[in-house]
Amino acid sequence: MVDLLPSLAFLGAGSMGGAILQGVVASGVPVDGIRVTNRTRAKADALAALPGVTSVALEDEPGGNTDAAASARIVVVGVKPAMVPDLLREIAPVLRDDAIVVSIAAGVTLRTFADALGPDVHTVRSMPNTPATVGRAVTGIAAGATATDEDMALVRAMFETVGAVIEVPESQIDAVSTISGSGPAYVFLLIEELTKAASGMGFSEADARLMVEQTFIGATTLLAASGEDPAELRRRVTSPKGTTERAIAVMQDARLDDMFAAATAAALARAKELAAGA
């Protein structure tokens, strides 16, 4: 982790931008100033108490985005995807020469950023996921054409305050979204279905939830602590000719490998449609 993050501007701090902002603050890493903008006073007030953060409501200060962008080394664009081009054109004239513009907007390409900002502005596209809110994100980052190694190191350091980071070419960012971006929903679905199965065996709703949720939490904690391959941990639980072996056989017969391949392929196809404006 770096000793100091440069000045940051969060233009739009909804659920994802707000999670990253709060992660940066909670990390304790010193920052050379943080400014954040939101459209309404209510949203701005919700972030105003964060130490070291200047929170601006655009309804009170219409020039808040340009003021924030002009002051920052890293400018995080967190508005809704449809609003990104107009915001980029708004801030383009005031960006510092060394500014790094980071997108957390799903489906907005680096080409869109270059078209609005000009080809010389340093840009990075990212794909965080919702566990950023608890400091357990996986964030994919992709460098724009002029982004330097130093730029990427700074952006990586910012996102590492809320979890793990992988660097990929932009061509893989949509694929990142289908695995880690959508992945929490896949896990929640598995928890839902196993909880239903527990209820069907006569457990109360409270006991079913407790067993299933804590089993998932315990298993992933064990995986992280052990450093073992998940297949090896599965084998250790699966005694020959035992109950777990019988259950795993049923799941393997259902071709979970094909199901996950098909599901992620469908998500990737939709991501490409969204990127194309469909």
Helix/strand layout:
Blueprint: E1 8-11, H1 15-27, E2 34-38, H2 41-48, E3 53-57, H3 64-71, E4 74-77, H4 84-91, E5 100-103, H5 110-117, E6 122-127, E7 137-143, H6 149-160, E8 163-167, H7 173-181, H8 183-200, H9 205-226, H10 230-237, H11 243-253, H12 256-275
Parallel strand pairs: 1-2, 1-4, 2-3, 4-5, 5-6, 7-8
Antiparallel strand pairs: 6-7
Structure description:
This protein is α/β, with parallel strands linked by helices. 52% of the residues lie in helices and 14% in strands. It has two domains: 8-173, Rossmann fold, CATH 3.40.50.720; 183-275, ProC C-terminal domain-like (ProC C-terminal domain-like fold), CATH 1.10.3730. An eight-stranded mixed β-sheet has the order 3-2-1-4-5-6-7-8, sandwiched between helices. It is elongated. The mean pLDDT is 94.
Number of domains: 2
Rg value: 22 Å
The top level CATH class name of the largest domain: Alpha Beta
**What sort of overall outline do the alpha carbons produce when their principal axes are compared?**
elongated
Give me the count of strands: 8
Give the strand order of the largest sheet, numbering strands 1, 2, ... along the chain.
Answer: 3-2-1-4-5-6-7-8
Mean of all residue-level pLDDT scores: 94
Taking the sheet with the most strands, its summary is:
8 strands, mixed
Percent of residues in beta strands? 5-15%
Euclidean distance between termini CA atoms: 39 Å
User: What's the helix count?
Assistant: 12
CATH architecture of the largest domain: 3-Layer(aba) Sandwich
User: What is the CATH topology of the largest domain?
Assistant: Rossmann fold
CATH superfamily of the largest domain: NAD(P)-binding Rossmann-like Domain
Unreliable stretches (pLDDT < 50, length at least 5) are none
Order of helices and strands: EHEHEHEHEHEEHEHHHHHH
Helix amount: 40-55%
Oligomer: single chain
The SS-based structural class is alpha/beta
